[in-house]
Amino acid sequence: MFFALTLTWTFLGSSVAIASAFQIYHVPASPPKIAARTKLLQYSPNTAIDISENAQRDASLLTEWAASCGIQMSDGFRLASEGGVDVYAITDQYLPDNSPILYVPNELMLTGSKAREELGNDARGAEQMVVNSEASNRLSQFYLFLKVLKEYELGQDSFTYYWMNSLPRYFSNGASLTDFCFGCLPPYAAEASLAEKYKLKLFVQALSQVPFLSTESKNNEDLAKWAFSVVHTRYFPMADGDCCIVPTADFFNHGSEPNAYITYDDEGNCYAFTTREVQAGQPLMISYGDSTNPSALLAKYGFLDESAPATFCKYVVNNPSAELVNMGYDPSRMLFYTNGEIAQEVWDVLLYEALGKVSYDEQQSLYQAHMTGNVELTLQYHQQYFEQTKSALQEHVNFLLNELEELGLGLEIQVSQGQDAERHPRLPLIMRHNEFITKILEN
Q: Across the strands, what pairs with 6?
């Protein structure tokens, strides 16, 4: 049964009522169990999901599975595909601003807290290993990782089978890169990517303390890498610190200027709405994170956002002091823009560091002027030490450009000779990333 619906929920502290022609299935007060609802699909898929990188993902039954589980989609919502590699949400119909796109009931969502409640009694040893490691801040993701592995072992008996069979097999995130690939990235991108690879290693080590998974699964490096990548490229962070994967909503691609957003009601149900008018045929996109840091997006998600308006200037300070952070040291603020502009924070940080080499008293005077909003004195310091600051910036840019040039030459030789096309198929993506950063630096 279909009907026009008025949705009321609290978003950003205010109650909002939206009258919509969103045609939504009625959800009974006590919906049947998800596992039972999936039986509405009369198909006989293979028991095991082929997660090899060259395996085809199958999203053909996903929307029917979603509807049978209580997921509700606007008219025109569908999944598009480019060669079966990338599958993403688009709309075939015009959507006005603030239109409902998708509703996913809480019971269908995978969350770290739910997975811990379900699996935690048998995974205390593994949890302790994660807590005591450098992955301690990813405990929620770890339990999602265990949940994906458990559902994988269930095969077609898993209520998530049709969703899991629609997921990517091939990833280009940091956890999927080879040691050779890390050597082809500039330092900041390489460090971010290596961090993902290291977290995967810690997750795999903790599997030794998980009794409910088979020995075969625990020793399958490709399976662990796939499950880790599924979790880390598809989860949404929640306000309470938990992480959730929302089937169907996880098919929204990233956009630096998103036209959709995700929100939740008090019962934890997930909604997607448009942020502006969306024309028929357009992809539906949300923001995955800071669009001014494409290297970080590459490391975590495995794609290059070439629509990014800027990039972190790659000026890396290990263990920055509180004063340096207050001066503006932050990858989301120290930016080089595609139009050639440079964020003020770059100049402020470089000036602070330059003064530290000249006079501690002068450095502290600048810091106090910055913190108290004394614009006149801050400007005087910038004018007085402009040549030193400019020289430091030029030295930094030249270093990065020289490094990128050397990397580029090495990559071109490898690709032209075809020696690593099979072992390192992600090299073209890495080359595009390096060329994108080079172009911004040359501006």
A: 19
Q: Is 273 exposed, middle or buried (0-12, 13-18, 19+ CB in 10 A)?
A: buried
- Dihedral (Cα; 415, 411, 234, 262), 10-degree rounding: -110
User: Tell me, what amino acid is at 336?
Assistant: F
Using a pLDDT cut of 70, give the percent of the chain over it. 87
DSSP 8-state symbol, 312: E
- The H or E element containing residue 225 is helix 221-234
Strand runs (DSSP E) across 50-126, as ranges?
A: 72-73, 77-82, 86-91, 100-104, 110-111
Model's pTM, two decimal places?
Answer: 0.85
Unique residue bearing structure tokens 């840091």: 293
CA gap 137, 226 in Å, rounded: 20
Q: How far apart are CA 420 and CA 428, in angstroms?
A: 11
Q: What is the mean pLDDT of residues 381-410?
A: 91
Write the DSSP symbol of residue 373: T
- pLDDT, mean over the chain: 87
CA 411 to chain centre: 26
Measured in residues, the chain has a length of: 443
Phi (first) and psi of residue 111, to 5 degrees: -130, 155
